[in-house]
Amino acid sequence: MSVNVQITVQPPIPGVDSNGGCASTSNYVYSTITSFAFQGCYTQLIIECRAPSDVVSLETCFASCKTEGSAMIQPLINDDMFGCRCNAANTIEGIDNEQESGSGAVTCGGNAWFTYTHSADATASGLAKKALRERLVNLRNRNNGGLCPFRSKACQIPYSDTYECIDTTSEFESCGGCTFGEFQPAKNATMGTNCSALPGIVRGAVTCSNSRCEAFACRSGFKLVSGVCVAA
């Protein structure tokens, strides 16, 4: 007996305030490997645009802004990307708007800017870089001196001089290899596939198994053939 399961992935939903509060039915996600601290949500900011316009993850934006004083991240509605900006200042400067005069703060949600700062000391003394270097050293000491634990690859983080350890046999955004290349490329290294970017797949209806993308639901106009969505 076969059972078809339809999974719906929700886009970012509004919070309950400008300080990152979530409804009781929602979940929080924390990053524990950054020196940046959350400061609130805004729609209008003074932005110096010192980073790529769009990134694939929050970690990528933090890495891009590690030598700056502040980072701003915007979940893009109907997209899997995030807007990313950096400022040299260690404070967030909002522009007045009608919702909260004098601050520019708004309820957190899709298309709002989630703002983060780290201290002037962290920026000036290079604590952000030091934390990343220490993380690299710890990873290098694992598995008899290898960069990553067994079954993981050291995948390059874009716009950064560091990497993250990924199990490319099961990670659907780097399935079968590192999407942006390996940190220390080996000969004949296999480039990974972002399974969610394959044509015809319903959002959230794909996984990575044994280094291979496997879809289980297709959009209209496509049909599922051996885990692949092909034009009908």
From TrEMBL:
It comes from the Eukaryota. Residues 163-224 form the Protein CPL1-like domain. InterPro entries: CPL1-like, PriA/CPL1_fungi. This is Protein CPL1-like domain-containing protein.
